[in-house]
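Morning F.,

Quick status update on the modeling queue. The single chain you submitted on Monday has been processed. Sequence for confirmation:
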Amino acid sequence: MVEGKVQVDGVAANGGEVVFTVDGKTSSGKIQDDGTYRVIDVPLGSAAVTVTAPTIPQGGAATPPTKDMPGSTGVTKPVAIPAKYATAATSGKTTTVVAGTNKYDIDLSAK
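Structure tokens below.
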């Protein structure tokens, strides 16, 4: 398992997906409202890491995440995830996955 937090220029991402690819096998997990993610059953070894933006429904805009806590003000503005992090060829993100729980925080830059 790999878990951590995704940030873009120091701001927690609040949607999208993190994908680990090891020897052609992929495992993925959703980014939560607070930027945290958890990916279970990641193959062991050197992993290419990609981060994708929230999916945009056909004919519509991306649905911003909602805050489910009592007293919440409702929806939050989605944090933009640069497109270069969506493919292994351009993300530049890698990590080595070992047995047990792995912590891997992902810092992205919009620059």
